[in-house]
Amino acid sequence: MTTPNFPTGQYGVTMSRRVLQQLRNTLERDAGLQAASYLQEAGFAGGEAMADAFRAWLADRHGVEQPRDLDAAHFGSTLSQFLSELGWGTVSVSPLGAAALAIDSSDWAEAQDDPSGEYPSCHLSCGLLADFLGRISDGTIAVMEVECRSRGDARCRFVAGSPETLGVLYDRMAQGEGYADALAQAG
Questions:
Q1: Cα–Cα dist 66/6, whole Å
Q2: What is the model's pLDDT at position 114?
Q3: Averaged in consecutive runs of 10 residues, what is the pLDDT profile of the chain (187 residues)?
Q4: CA atoms within 13 Å, Cβ hemisphere of 94
Q5: How far, CA to CA in Å, does 49 sit from each of 6, 20, 40, 46?
Q6: What are the residue ranges spanned by the domains of the chain?
Q7: Longest dimension (CA), the chain
Q8: Which one is the CATH code of 17-186: 3.30.2130.10, 3.90.1150.10, 3.30.1380.20, 3.30.572.10?
């Protein structure tokens, strides 16, 4: 099995999960709450290269030129294979209500091996997935992590949807509502 190649002119960097986790720990220690914004912004910067690599990988592996041409029934398994080969982890993808998509992983790379966090904290991944998904769908996508292995959850769960939907989700969760109930009302 070969790792997906980044297109000509783009460079991919391989680093261990530990490096990613230590970067987050250091930023959280030194920057406090700003760490989430810094990591998310860094994630956004990687979305374009990841989308280009996905397009090239999809054409090479499946003969599909554009992600929008991929049969929706195969999107989740195809995305999981791609992300796994890049080292991010395996994922399952499913609709979450009428207005969002759940991306779940029990082995996500950014999650801490030693869960001790109070909140979901795969911030770099949220930015990366938002930009990546927006580019392959030709739309604007927001991503929020609502469950995280770093705080002891069994999985990392990322919710992807329109910025408006996730804005409502965030507001309702900030008021103490669970994400499933908030999404049911937002859809």
A1: 16
A2: 74
A3: 57 79 90 94 94 94 92 93 94 91 96 80 96 95 95 95 94 91 76
A4: 6
A5: 7, 18, 16, 6
A6: 17-186
A7: 47
A8: 3.30.1380.20
Helix (H, G, I), strand (E, B) or coil at 142: strand
Which helix (DSSP H) or strand (DSSP E) does residue 4 occupy? none
**CA distances (Å), 66 to each of 53, 60, 138, 168, in order?**
12, 11, 11, 31
The token pair at 36 is 């989430």
Proportion of the chain in helix, strand, coil states, percent, rounded to 5? 55, 10, 35
Distance, in Å, from the CA atom of 124 to the CA atom of 181, rounded to the nearest integer, reads 26
3-state secondary structure of 29: helix
Residue 53, SS3?
helix
pLDDT of res. 1 = 47
Q: pTM above the 0.85 mark?
A: yes
Q: How far apart are CA 180 and CA 136, in angstroms?
A: 26
